[in-house]
Each structure stands twice: as C-alpha cells, then as structure tokens.
Amino acid sequence: MTPWLSRAFTTAVLGASMLGLSGCESLQSGLATPVLRFMEYKVVPPTLASGDADMGCNFALATAPLISSTRALYADPSMLESVQLTSAAGCSEAQAVDEELRYMRAQRDKKPDEAMDARTAQKRLLERTALRQLQAHQLMVSSVEKKYKLKYGESCPRFRKDFDELVYLLGTISGLQAFTNDVAAQQVVGVPSDIAPKAEAALRCLDNEKWWGVPLAGRAVVWSMVPGGSDGKDVKGSFDKAMSIGEAKGVRVAHVMAAIAAVSSDDQKQLRASLKRFASVKDFKASPEYRLIDQNAVLQMQNISDRYWTQNTGSRTPVGRLGKFWDEGSGNAPAGNVDNFLN
Q: pTM of the predicted model, to two decimals?
C-alpha cells in the first residue's frame, strides 16, 4: 500500500470510528454552527443596513429553508429562523393588503363576486402571515428560555449580545402582529390570546432609548387592545414619547404602532396625526445600521394610508402624498381624475 493510500485509509477509519463511537451529532453540529455564525455576523448586518424592504423579505423567503436545514445537523438555528420568518411575513402581509384594497374597490363598484373573492384571498394571506409571525414568536421564546434559563414574560434575560436582544424585540412584536392578523383571518391559526399580556411584560425588559421607542410603543398597543388595559395609562403620551425617540434614533416603527392602534380604535383624528407626523419629520435620517427596519415602517405606513384613501376615494394614496388627505384642500388631485395623477 502506498503512503498516500495508507494515510487516506487511516483517515477514513478514524472518521468512521469517530462517527460510530462518539456519534455524528458533535461532528455535524460543528459543521453547521459556523454557517449560522456566518449568517449572523456577516449576512444579517448588511441586510439590516440595506434600504430595500422588498428584497429583504424575498431574501428571507429564499434562505429560510436553508437556515432551517441546519437543524438536521444538530445545530440550533432558532434565532435566525425567527428573524427570517418575521421578514417573510412582510411579503404575505403586503399581498394581503393588495387583496384588501381590491375588496374595497369591488364593494364601491357593487361587484359582490369580486368582493367575495378578494376577501377570501385576503384571509388566506393573513392566515399565512399570522402563522409565520406566530412561528417567529415561538422560536424566539423557546430559544431565549433555553439560552438564558428563564420563563418568557416572567423574568428578564441578561442579554449577552445585541443580536439576541433584537430578535427578542422583533419576535415579541411578531407575536402581537400574529394575534391581530389571526383575528382578521377568523382565527384559523389559533394564536393564543395570552400573547398580549406576556408581550407587554417582556417589553419592559428592553431599553426604550436603545430600541427606538418600540418597547414603550408596543406596550401602549397592548394597553389599547386589551379591555381595561388603558385604565390609568397615558396611551397617547406613551406613543408621542416613543415616536420622538424613534425620530431621533432613525427608526420610525413606533409611528406604525401608533397608527395601528388608531385604526383598531377607529380614531381617525389620531390616525391622521400619526400619518402626518411620520411623513413630516424634519431632517430625518434613517439609522445606517437598521435602515431596512425603518424602510419596513415606511411600507407599513404606506399600506395604512392606502387603506384609508381607498376606503374614502376608491384609490391608493397618490404618489408623494403620504401624510396628506383628499379633503384638506392641499392640492391633491380629486378622486377619479386620472389625468391629474399622471401629470
């Protein structure tokens, strides 16, 4: 036997022995863990710094199965999976909004068949969205509880790195979104109703200044959606404070949450105020590190505005008119005058 063949044979025997005697778990985990670390440290940061929300959600759709496949190699991709599912939910949620707008237009035009079809399509997409958001929430909770040896919503983790803290925040907000989207989809997913109070408690663990005012805004959303939750609470003041922090930090997620709360309570005055404030922040600069998250907020506010415009005019918000309304005499083209929109 030649020296090269001898070495190859010895290597093969040792490899087989290691797999047979020690089990394949440690070896396979050793192969998968560097992949996850590469994704966390080298892929996620530039993705968050990008300004293309559509690309971000499609990237999540494409890579989520790859991330999940490392579980078969005895790695734990839960935190990355949570981020991917949160982002992927943005794709299906945007599609659901399009179907909702189609439903509104069909109703205005007295087309019952099309309205029913659009509503069915919307509910299916909301179901998919709620399921992704619930899975993102559950993966975050299980990972945090295992890693930090605690019970989510009962005690606070002492985070070892910002990535874990970010996933904790996003996963908590995803849980709240899953609940509201499931309600809109006629509760076909079955998102547990105790998510809201647990999320409110969990958000107290986060630094409000560090995370753009979102922890306070998230708690204010819970106060506004739970019966009796706003008793003794300054909901409006909390949203105002959270939005001010977000404007200073370059991430305007708190504005979205204030607008969602206004829609839920049918408070049109507050809805308009939230949209106006979002669109008119003076000298606003998006956070270079979290530009994608602010861009997601832009798209969500655009969706909220499009719903409001379509309900009242039959069409989406005109280009460049976010934060402005059809009845304010601010130079908006009247509904139905297509030439004015094209010129």
A: 0.88
